[in-house]
User: What shape does this take?
Amino acid sequence: MKFYKYLVLNFYNKCEKKNHMIKAQILITLCSILSLDVLAGTPAPLNAELYFITPSNGDIVSSPVTVKFGLRNMGVAPAGVQVENTGHHHLLIDIDLPAMNQSVPKDNQHLHFGNGQTETELELAPGKHTLQLLLGDFSHVPHVPPLVSDKITVTVE
Ligand SMILES: [Cu+2]
Assistant: This one.
């Protein structure tokens, strides 16, 4: 990426005497590269998929709820272990997605499964709850592109 930036800057310098349109075009390119760099994270394969094996959207369940995490075309590795095309699961409870370019928060609405677990027994109060999975890399940051499951709603009796 740094080499790419160097090439663009170099090209920009060479074009200094040409018209402003070219300069503007190069600046736009440069800006997009710089912001891409800021967002750069651990890459994930485009065909990877994150989903709930159980429960399903709309299920009526009783607490504790068995939640099983499904992941296709990627592997699970514990937090702290940097292996290509792997990550660990995060379960988001009754909350929207966090920022995709920083570590997933760690609290009772953002559960980390940093030992590489692929299921859990979840205590939930009676009523409706939303659940969503988000894969994180070795440092708990979502991949690029992020792996996010559908957000499902379950009703606890
Ligand atoms: Cu994590």
